[in-house]
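About this split. The held-out portion is used to measure sequence recovery: a designer receives only the structure tokens and must propose an amino acid at every position. Recovery is the fraction of positions where the proposal matches the reference. Here is one held-out target exactly as it appears in the evaluation file.
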């Protein structure tokens, strides 16, 4: 069973100050993300530590994937250079392959 998506709740900073303990408990429960506004503009978000840790873990994974993608792109670039292929030639081949796959899947040319 998938966990419930936290509800977004917007509160004014003065309300948060007056009811700080309650607001912290609400955010800490994981059922609500509290968006705190000052002068009608959002300034912070309060969320549970578990939610924060999940966001940070996802951010680290995204950064690792980006590094991996960049390293792969550099390896491909070096391999293409060794074969004497220009960027334009590679892009033309990719376009043709994409068109061929589209035609194969849908049976008609892409416009």
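Reference sequence for scoring:
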């Amino acid at each position: 069973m998938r966990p419930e998506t936290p509800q977004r709740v917007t509160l004014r900073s003065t309300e948060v100050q007056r009811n700080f303990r309650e607001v912290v408990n609400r955010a800490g429960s994981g059922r609500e993300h509290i968006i705190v506004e000052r002068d009608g503009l959002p300034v912070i978000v309060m969320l549970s530590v578990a939610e924060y840790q999940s966001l940070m873990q996802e951010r680290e994974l995204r950064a690792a994937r980006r590094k991996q993608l960049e390293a792969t792109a550099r390896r491909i670039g070096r391999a293409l250079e060794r074969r004497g292929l220009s960027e334009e030639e590679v892009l033309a081949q990719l376009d043709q392959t994409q068109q061929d796959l589209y035609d194969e899947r849908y049976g008609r040319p892409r416009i």
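Annotator remark: Residues 51-106 form one domain.
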